[in-house]
Amino acid sequence: DVQLQASGGGLVQPGGSLTLSCAASGVRLHYYAVNWFRQAPGKEREGVSCIDTSDGSSNYADSVKGRFTISRDDAKNTVYLQMYDLSVGDTAIYYCAAETSAYCGSGNFLSWGRGTLVTVSS
CB–CB of 94/10 below 8 Å? Predict the structure, then answer.
């Protein structure tokens, strides 16, 4: 089975940092672009970031650009999302999804991971 497991969420104070992980099983992420999404309570899902295979090309939502960094370690079959300078507005369930393409923007997803909750509060 193809499984993507997001982890690393938790409670963090405003201005703090947190790193999320997306570990895959049953699929070799080397071949696929991987996205991070988030959904805040009562709001629609938002695309956060995406990273291509090998060359590591990436993109970010304007709301997180300059604060979040996506990366991948294909040897570990894992994609990361480093988050800095977190604010209350970043509170959401974060989850990852592999595309059926090596490149971001295909609109087709191979698998969705279980979300992990990030709560930013003082």
Answer: no
